[in-house]
Amino acid sequence: MLINLTACNSKNSSKTTAEKYQCPMHCEGDKTYEEPGNCAVCKMDLQALAINEKKTGEISELSIYNLPSKWTNQNGEEIQLKALKGDVLVMVMIYTSCQTACPRLVADMRGIEKQIPTDKKDKVTLVFVSIDPETDTPQRLKEFAIENQMDSEKWVFLRGSEADTREFSAVLAVNYKKISPMDFSHSNIISVFDQGGELAYQQEGLGINNAKTISKIIELTN
Ligand SMILES: [Cu+2]
Question: Per-residue confidence at 56, pLDDT binned at 50, 70, 90?
Fold first, then answer.
């Protein structure tokens, strides 16, 4: 029997971006100020940095794109998470040989993808991260993608080292534990990350109402 571990710190983090000001002539390079005013060098009015800086520019310290972990995708390509930057990410941790919860999580991911409006679909990447990297070789992940008709660019399947997988699960507040040679118990959490790699929303459970997840994805892609 599988035990569903409960993540106690799955939270909905929302955060406002602090406004920053910079000389339009870059007299002091990329130096920014917290308050509006004039450049100390050329005296021009400081300019407020674009509000959507977070979507295109630097990443915050809460971003998963700071993680140095290396992953291999279903095509055998080595990538770092930051290669996914710029898209809204919908992520879940699974293992392909799971007979119980994971098939339902895969169905939930499919259900979410179906509800993303057509004009937003190319702004969203759906990511599966294996909790069983030993079994889930790139080749196995590729077969799994094909079996599930998820063999296109918007579906990404990743495997990494045991240590990187464990570290990443902590970021997602996903618990997992090997309970037999073939099986793991694990949390059932689908996470939404914004374009800068910050956690924006999580849903927990199997086959649950995903309306809030969808509306968060749509809000982020607007
Ligand atoms: Cu499972």
Answer: low
CA of 96 to the centre of ligand 1 (A): 8
How many degrees, rounded to 5, is the angle at CA 92 between CA 213 and CA 179? 135
Sign of the torsion formed by the C-alpha atoms of 207, 215, 146 and 92: negative
Residue 199 lies in a domain: yes
Distance 6 CA to ligand 1 centre (A): 14
User: Of the candidates 26, 58, 90, which is a domain's last residue?
Assistant: 58
Distances (CA, A) of 94 to 82, 106, 121: 21, 8, 23
Task: Give me ligand 1 centre to Cα 18, in Å.
Answer: 39
The string of pLDDT tens digits covering residues 112-171 is 999 999 999 999 999 999 999 999 999 999 999 999 999 999 999 999 999 999 999 999
Full domain range(s) for residue 141: 64-221
Residues 22 and 108 in one domain: no
Q: How far is the CA of 17 from the centre of ligand 1 (A)?
A: 36
176 Cα to the center of ligand 1, angstroms: 9
109 alpha carbon – ligand 1 mean position (Å): 14
Q: Give the count of domains, the chain.
A: 2
pTM attached to this predicted model:
0.75
**Residue 94 CA to ligand 1 centre (angstroms):** 6
The closest of 74, 94, 222 to 154, measured between CA atoms, is 74
The pLDDT, as a whole number, for residue 188 is: 98
- Distance (angstroms) between ligand 1 centre and the Cα of 160 equals 18
